[in-house]
Structure formats: C-alpha cells, structure tokens
Amino acid sequence: MVNSKELFAEAQTLLPGGVSSPVRAIKPYPFYVKSAKGAFITTVEGTQLIDCCLGYGPLILGHAHPVIKAAITSQLENGWLFGTPTELEIDLAKRVTADHPSIDMLRFVSTGAEATMAAIRLARGFTGKSDIVKVEGGFHGAHDAVLIAAGSGATTHGTPDSAGVLPDFAAHTRQVAFNDPEGLEELLSKNDNIAAFIIEPVMGNIGPILPDDGYLAAVREITAAHDVLLIFDEVITGYRLGIGGAQVKYGIKPDLTTLGKITGGGLPIGLFGGRREIMEMISPAGPVYNAGTFNGNPLTMAAGIAMNKYLHQHPEIYPKFDERTRIIEESIPSSSPGTFVRLGSMFKYFCRPEAPRNYTEAKECDTVLYRKLWEKALSGGLFMPPSQFETNFLSSAHGDGEMVKLSEVYAQ
Ligand SMILES: *Cc1c(COP(=O)(O)O)cnc(C)c1O
C-alpha cells in the first residue's frame, strides 16, 4: 500500500524539497491526500481529517461542493480552452464589478501573484512613478517586487528576501508597519516617487491581523493626499469577509483591487481591477502589457460564476461563520497562554499573550509551542496550516459535529 512517507521520499528526488509550494513541506513528511469532500480531507493511509486549511483559502464551501462540481462538469462537455473570448468572462466580470464599488473594469489572470504583479506594473505605468510601498509581513505572491519581508511561506522559512531578487530592484519596494498611519505619512511625505501602496486590508498571511479602528480610512486619506494609488490585495479577504470583501466591510474605496482564491471557485484564478481610467491603460486598450494563455480560463470562469451565484443565494453563511468561530473562541480556557483572533471565518490561535498588531509583534509568537499544539491537533484529527503565520479557515461545510470536535481540540 502507498504511504505518505515513501511518496515524500520519491517526491524529493523529483521536486525540490519534495513539494510544489514550500508551505506544503511539513516535517518530517507531509501527508498525501487521496480525496476530499465537504469539511474532510482523506489521506492515502485512509485517515480522515477536518480541514481548516482549505487549500489556503479558496474553498469557502468546502471540498468538492456539488454546485461547483456541476458547473465544472457541464463546462467540460463544451471544452476547456479556446484562446478566444467567451461569454463566461463577461458573466463573471459583471458579477465581480457589481460586488465591488471600486471596480469598474478588470482583467482575469491565473493566480493571485500574477494579479499583484500586474497591478503594480499598472500603477507604475499609470502614475509614471517607480517605487512601491508594501506592509512588513504582507504577502502578495511569489514575485520579485513583493518578496521583501513577505509573510506566508517566506516567513515560515526565514527567508523573506529570496536569493535571485536583484538588490537594485528590491530597492524600489519600501516597507511600513501595519497599523502605523504615521509611518506611512512620513514615508510618503519624504518621497515623491511612490506609485502605489499595496496592502492586505486584513493581514492573512501572518494573521489574521486586524486593522485598528480608522486605520484603513487613514491609509485611504494619506495615499490620496500624496497621489499614491491604493491597492487592496483582497486575494484572501475577497468573498471571505463577505460579498465585496474588506473594502465593503470597512467602507473604503481603493484605486485598484486584486482578487483570487475564492473568486475562482477553487480553480486557479487571479484578477485585478479598479477605476476605468486606470484599467484602460491595460493592453490592448493601453500601453501596460498583460497577457496569459490561461487568462479567463473557461473552467475557472464556470466555477467562479457558480461560486458567486451560490454566495449571493446564501448570504446567511457569513453571520453563521461569525457564530461558529465564536464557539471556538469560547472553548478556549482562560488560563491559555495565547490569544485567539477571529474575523468571520478567518481565525488563529497566536502563541503570544496579546493579539499581534503588526509583523514585529507576530514574530514574537512562540513557534515551538505552536508546533506542539499543531501536532496535537493533527493527531486529534484536525488539519490546520502548519505555520503559526497562516490563517485558519472555516467553510460552510463545517457542520455542528465538526464544531464540537474543533472546540474539543481548542479546549485542550
Ligand atoms: C495567496 C495570496 C496571494 C498569491 O496568490 P497565488 O494564487 O498563490 O499566486 C497574493 N496575495 C494574498 C493576500 C494571498 O493571500
């Protein structure tokens, strides 16, 4: 019988580190998955785990949801790649623009990383300015401009600055701390060559780290005053915090938005969108180049449309998430050494006496303790992201039974 240990040994001879993405390289070896359905993932050994990683965010309806599956299956019958436009792109674009008051037009790409890469290029092309500002610990995908003090796998492995990123290029990316409007004001007032400020409105890749009251409004005001484009990276928060993501929840209108993850119903997707005058700079309408073989992929479009329809038809899932993560919070004993942070279906136990407000504070977490708790949870049948610095998620498939189990794990 196949087992995870042997599969990983073989994978290491073929795939660097044995994996296709670094966060998956769980020590001593990751479990290999045979199948997944609803809230559960089943390993090749036949172990069933409650999944609170959910593909690192996209699967808000759980695994293999029948509605998404039906949409993909029906599109399969008609073919899955045409290299020419389809009605499906118009349909999903209409939905996404309607859901986000800040988005008049958008471009579909295949991943969140491509979306932020293109949005940054667009901001430079539109403003004619060269530098960007990001948040320390903010993660925007694995590309050169943003692999600087990045969260997610980059933090886990202690290599925020990747080898191969040219120092000359990295010098065009500046950093500020999250929840520090004064720091942003100071930076922008000293530099007149900043094209954009890119930020996860709720930090999801070292978090969740929540914005202080008024922080996002201050960020909007400061960037506008300095003619700096505000890019909300809502690849995690889009459709996760509700329809319209963080920008609708907090009532802020960014200039550009990047989306991904949930928007594609669990198939690979990214998109960036914003004000018409900015988006019309994108090729072939304008001079900022973007292209991709799989942009607007029909299967992804079909899955994304099905996801979008479902979320609109079931608005009750969002308040339900809030109730459910409160149940987990309430199960944690008051003597616990850490802090539980939650926002809707995003949650995390931080091994630190207070909730972190930025990257520096997040790094103070006791990662050794976290690892112990994570292992205990896994042996108790719960799969969470292995890093202290990745958000846990719930899906609408996590029912009462799973909540009881989750509460038991957290009560320990
Ligand atoms: C996941 C993520 C990305 C990268 O998306 P990929 O599809 O993995 O390239 C970008 N930004 C944020 C906030 C993310 O969480």
UniProtKB/TrEMBL annotation:
Cofactors demanded by this protein: pyridoxal 5'-phosphate
One Gene Ontology cellular component annotation held by this UniProt entry: cytoplasm
Entry's EC annotation: 5.4.3.8
Modified residue annotations for N6-(pyridoxal phosphate)lysine: 261
Domain of life: Archaea
One Pfam family cited in the UniProt record for this chain: Aminotran_3
GO biological process, any: protoporphyrinogen IX biosynthetic process
Pathway assigned to this chain's UniProt record: Porphyrin-containing compound metabolism; protoporphyrin-IX biosynthesis; 5-aminolevulinate from L-glutamyl-tRNA(Glu): step 2/2
GO molecular function: glutamate-1-semialdehyde 2,1-aminomutase activity; pyridoxal phosphate binding; transaminase activity
Enzyme class: isomerase
Transmembrane segment boundaries: none
Sorted UniProt keywords: Cytoplasm, Isomerase, Porphyrin biosynthesis, Pyridoxal phosphate
Localization terms from the record: Cytoplasm
Catalytic activity: (S)-4-amino-5-oxopentanoate = 5-aminolevulinate
Matching InterPro entries: 4pyrrol_synth_GluAld_NH2Trfase, Aminotrans_3, Aminotrans_3_PPA_site, PyrdxlP-dep_Trfase, PyrdxlP-dep_Trfase_major, PyrdxlP-dep_Trfase_small
HAMAP family from the UniProt entry: HemL_aminotrans_3 (MF_00375)
Family: Belongs to the class-III pyridoxal-phosphate-dependent aminotransferase family. HemL subfamily.
UniProt-recorded name of the protein: Glutamate-1-semialdehyde 2,1-aminomutase
Species annotation: Methanorbis furvi
Gene that encodes the chain: hemL
